[in-house]
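Our collaborator T.R. sent over the components below with a one-line note: 'Predict the complex.' Nothing else. No constraints on interfaces, no templates requested, no preferences about which chain binds where. So this is a plain run: every listed entity goes in together, and whatever single assembly comes back becomes the starting point for the next discussion.
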Amino acid sequence: MTHLAQTLILGLLIGGVYALMASGLTLIFGVMKVINVAQGALLILAALFTFELWTRTGMDPMVAILVTTPLMFGLGWAIYRLFVARVRNAPISMTVLLTFALAITLEGVMGVVWKNVFRSVTPGYFTRSFHVGGLFIPQAQLYGCGVALLMLGLLFVFLTKTWSGRAIRAASENAQGAQLVGVNVNGVAAMTFAIGVATTGAGGSILSVLYSFFPASHYLWISRLLGIIVLGGMGSLPGAFIAALMLGVAEALTQTYISTRWATVVPYVVILVVLLIRPQGLMGSKLREDVAA
Amino acid sequence: MTLPRRGLGRIAIGLVATGLVLYPLIGSANAYRETVLIQIFLLAVMAGGWNIISGYTGYVSLGQSAFLGIGAYTVGILSMHVAVSPLLLAPLGGIAAALIAIILGAVIMRTRGHSFVIITIAFLFLMQALALNLPGITGGSNGITLPLPDWSNDTQQLPFYYSLLGLMALSVALSWWIRRSKFGTGLIAIREDEDKAAAIGVRTSVYKILSFTASAVLIGVAGGVYAYFLTFIDPRGMFDILVSVQIVLAVLLGGRGTLWGPVVGAFIILPLSEATNASSQGTHFVLFGGLLMAVVLFLPQGLVPTLNAFWARRRGEPSPRRPARVAAEPVPVAPYEDPHDRDGLPLLELEALVKRFGGVTAVDDCSFEVRRGSITGLIGPNGSGKTTIFNLVSGMARADSGRVLLGGERIDLMVPWERAYLGMGRTFQITRLFRQMTVFENVVAPLPGFSWRQLGADAVSGPEAVRAEELLDFVGMAEFASHQAGHLSFGQQKLVELAQILMLDPSLILLDEPAGGINPTAIDRMTDLIVKLNQRGVTFLIVEHNMPMVLGLCDPVMVLADGRCIAQGHPHEIQANPAVLDAYLGRGWGEATERLEV
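Returned assembly:
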């Protein structure tokens, strides 16, 4: 029983981190119907930045978030302006090929600069745990999850309390409608893409402590994130949050009761099963596709 | 394309083919160059497969290289247990790939664009994970070592060379055959507009599964041959995303949806890959990722179409080819069975239909009938649910409750193409022709039924060509037969769309704003056509805002407001009905006018 409780706690902690990482991907899809396949590579890039900061200055990865987040925001903005904006109105197949190409390019750049070796950031609390009633809670996991939830909270406040945030949500629900009431949809798209990529800043910094990583790890991460947003319903933030917790728990259970190597298969199975049985996911809306546009 | 250039192209293809067949036999051949050619052929086979699902059908797969691994592993595993040359086992790799494609096809037939991309990525990595995690079957990360070739050293790589060259030829032949069959036309229709394709009788689910299967089968066979060529396979090498990148890049660079694009692309991409092989893996990724970005951004059409267009401009040729014109008197449409025989009986019945979109109830307990032989009008203010009703009747949307009957048969649970087979055709408010196809191709695209044999039939049979010409004559668009549909004016597109659905020999036609946004001459022609067709027994249900047209043409007229049918009757009754005025002009108007008249 303790065993199960322990597994669930670890799963939920990691699920919280997944939720932050997936929020950017689902936000971008919701507003501009672009699947940013490069999100995984950007995550690894942020982790590498964190690694550099930590090795060069000894900066704690949780503090490094204050650096990586604006950095990734700027990078997201630049990627949108330079590449994505050019294919905004192209069929979805072209945008996905573009972000896929971007992912491959980033993997290559990371391989050239940082070489294909596994790294991880190991601050003092890396191996420490809290013990609560027979359960142990790894400090890194706890801090990671806490910071992720904090960032998600900030994102939530931004989306609900600020004008820009509301514009993003409006554009996500109905782009034409938003345009009609004075929302600059192009500006919103750039902003959304930048914010979506910015979430990989915090996500990558947390990742750098919890996992060892190397450039090609991004495939594993993008698969995980795609699994989450497919399960949650593409474009739905609450859906992504719940799905992230579910996937975290499912992976933890698989790891404990089956084996570590099968845990990596969980996201792929989730994707296939969800799209077969319930293509709109948990909280995705069935799009009204018949409107003559 | 004029004849001389076509001839020139054929000669060039023949020369290259002969060169490739003879190459290993002439003295100068060396093993390294042969190896490069073998890999080019392999990439061309894979690119050709990808072109079927992603070029013709428009569904982008990023996991196509998984089929290479499936073929390779099928042959690798079998070769450990049976003492047959792996080269002879290779076709089984194709069968395995095809079977898995059919199973995955069950998923893709339910999803659209973006979901499919995600599935294919997941599929590739799932296959890799299975190969790693099932060491009992696949050898896990140690991989499988196949027996060495059993032929003499003198033969060297020739069996691999010719097997893959043959597969490349087969791949081109398969693509060529698909493109000129009804199957191929259906795939292009799905790419251009999937809902529309379903509405004109293309059984999209079967088409999509078959297309995915056709895209996988030769890759599976090639994988089997390639495994034997390498004599060693492992999960990372066989389920490699970089191979998928090369496939995508080869097709995009060559020309997506073209016959020779994938081959041309393979001949460019693979040597490039070989030339940069010595550099680090990172550089390799930067090169291919960057190239793919550049192609997507700056050369989305690919080389073959771009060069074709360039040559066409240089020679001042008219770009679209005109099909051979069938000399025929303008024959009116074929007479339908029992014109006016059972007039007055309901042909289409809507019973208590309800459709909600989130919190909006677009159709709210709506019931009415369309009598056989009538021209029934459906009017109502914007947002009253007219187009939604069309979607429910034609099967593009499914009602939350209620029933739809056609000729007494319940159809509301049927998919759109089944309804088309029963004799229902519809047009769209904003026309939905396949814009990349010519007018003629648009008109011959509809399928009034489904059969497996029909899939392989020529895209246009003789009788169909004659019929299409007749129908284009009938709507007065024959002279535009060879024009690209997207280049026509809106009114012309409406006429072509009418001709298109007439190919289905429909007994019921749903017209969504046939006069909307077109000039008065075209409106007159449209009205004239509707009357003529109706005289031959075609029943119409027409949504229209042009009141003179509705009042002159339709009887009865149904009035829709807030998703319900609030009034029906002769046009004059409708005009005088206070409820109708209320619906159009707001509550109170009906009473006000009554009072005024008093």
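Summary for T.R.: The radius of gyration of chain A is 19 Å.
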